[in-house]
Amino acid sequence: MKLLNTEAILTLCENDIKSADLALNTLNRYQNGEVSLLALQEQIMTALSDFKNNSNKFEQPVERTTNFVAKATIWLIILCSLIVLSITLFISISVSRVLTKREETMKALAQSEEHDRQLAYLDTLTGLPNRNILEDNITHAISNASRNHSIFAVMFIDLDQFKDINDTLGHTIGDKLLVKMANRISLAMRDNDLVVRFGGDEFVAIIDCFDSVETIDCVATRIIETIRKPVRLADSEILITASIGIACYPENGKDPTSLLKHADTALYQAKSAGKNQFQPYDSLSASIQNRKLKIAKQLRNAIKNNEFSLVYQPIVQLSSGRTVGSEALIRWTNAENETIGPDEFIPVAEHSGQIIEIGNWVLQKACEQCKTWHSAGTMKHIMAINVSSFQLKAPFFAKGLSDILTSLSLPAECIHIEITENIAITEDKMSVSALYEISDLGIKLLLDDFGTGYSCLSYLKNLPFDILKIDRSFMPANNTIASTIIAMGHELKMEIIAEGIETLDCYRFLNKLNCQYGQGYLFQKPVPPSKFDIFRQFNQEVLACTLPNH
C-alpha cells in the first residue's frame, strides 16, 4: 500500500496554490477588462479540475492510511486482547493451582493434625489408647456412675518380672511380648470396658458399671489366666504372669487421682503377696504402702546424714568354739530417731533402686572393718557381707568389689559374699556372670537362707557357691531338714553354716552332725565393732554358764 509522505503532500499543496493564483489573477484581469467572461469561466473550471485532481491524489492515500491505521489498530487490539486473555488465563490457572495447592495443604495439615492428635492419645507400640486419655475416661465413668447410682473399677495391671525378660532376651522380644500381652488383655475385657497402656509393662483397665464384686473377680481372673499362657517368641517359650490391683468407685475413691493411687497401692500389695494374683484396695494396704513411700523418701539422705551403721555377729567354728569371722549387718536410725529394721527397709530399697548405693556403702565399710581387725592381729578373720540380687545385676559389680579389695590390700579369700536364695539369680545372665566373676576373684560365695525359697540342686551344681547357710527357721536343729542340708553339703564338699543357734543342745546337735560353723545368740547377738571380741574363744562350759538373754 502506497502512503503519502511529507514531500508529496507539500507538492499537492503547491499545485493547489498555483491553480488558485491563476484563477485569482484571471479574476483581477476580468475586473480590469483585460479578459472576457468566457476566459474567466474557463480558468475557474480549470482550477476546479486541478483542485479535484489534487484532492483525489490526497484523499485516496489518506483513506488508505486511515484504513491501514484502523486495521492495524483492530489487530493491535485483538493482539493485546489475546495477550491480556493469555495473561488472564495464566493468572487464573496459577490462582487455581495455588488454591488447589492451598486446599491440598490445608487438607494435609488437617490430616497431620488429626494424626498427631491420634498419636497423642495412642500407644504406638501396642495400638492401645495411652495414659493421656485415662483421666478423662475415668472422669466420664464417674459421671455415669454417679448419675446411674452404679459402681465401676480401675485396675492396675503389671507384668511380673518383665524386666528380667528384657534383660535376658532383649528389648525387641520384650516389645513383641508387650504387644501380645496387650492383645490378650484387650480380649479379656468386656465390650464396654477400656484398657490403656499406662507405660512400660503397666496397663490400666476401666471396668464399666457392674452389679457385683464377682464380676470384677471374673474379669481379673480372666486377665491373669490369659496372660500366663505360654508365648512362643524367637524359638523360645516364654512364661510370664501378671499382678493386678483393683480400686472401686465410690468406695475406694471419688476422683481419678484417688482411684489410680489406690489401684496402684493394691497392685503393690498383690506383688508383695507373691505376684500372679489380684488384690482389691483396702485401708491396711494403703497404710503399708504409705509407710514404704515414707521409708523410700527417708532413705535418699540416709547415707549423707550418716544414719546407717554396721553391727557384727561372730561366726564360730563349732568344733573348736573359736571365732573365725563375722557377719556384717546393717542398722538404720533415721533422722526422726526411729530405728527401722533391715527386714523392713531393704525390700523398699530394692524396689526403689536405692539398694545399689546402700549396698556399695556396706561393702566399703565392712571391708574397711575387716582390714582393721587384720591389722589388729587376726589375719585370717572372715567377713561375710550380704549382697542383694539387685546388686549383682548392676554393671561392673565384681569390678567395684575388686577395686575395694585392692585399695585396702585385703585378701579376697577373707571376704564371703552372701546371696539370698532366689530363683531370679539363675534366670538372669548378668547375675550368673557376676557370680562367676566374684568367684574368679577368689572370694567365696555363700548361699544364704538355703531351703526357704526355691531350693534346687541347680544352685549347687551350676553356680559357683562354696558354702550353704541353714536358715534360722530350721533351728533347733533336731529336725530332718537341717540334717539333710548338712549331709547334702558334705556330699558336695561344701561348708555349712547354721544360723539361729540359741541353745546348748542345738549347738551340740549341729556339732555332732559335723556342721562346721554357726551363728546365734548362744554366742553373741550382733554388736558394734567396739564390743566385738575378735579373739573370743567359746566352749561348752562357758556357753552353758553365759547364755545371753534374748
From TrEMBL:
Keyword field: Membrane, Transmembrane, Transmembrane helix
Alphabetized Pfam families for the sequence: EAL, GGDEF
Positions of the GGDEF domain: 150-283
Entry annotated with the keyword Transmembrane: yes
Keyword Transcription regulation (UniProt): no
Transmembrane segments: 74-99
InterPro entries membership: Biofilm_reg_signaling, EAL_dom, EAL_sf, GGDEF_dom, Nucleotide_cyclase, Rev_trsase/Diguanyl_cyclase
EAL domain span: 292-540
The protein, known as: EAL domain-containing protein
Species annotation: Paraglaciecola algarum
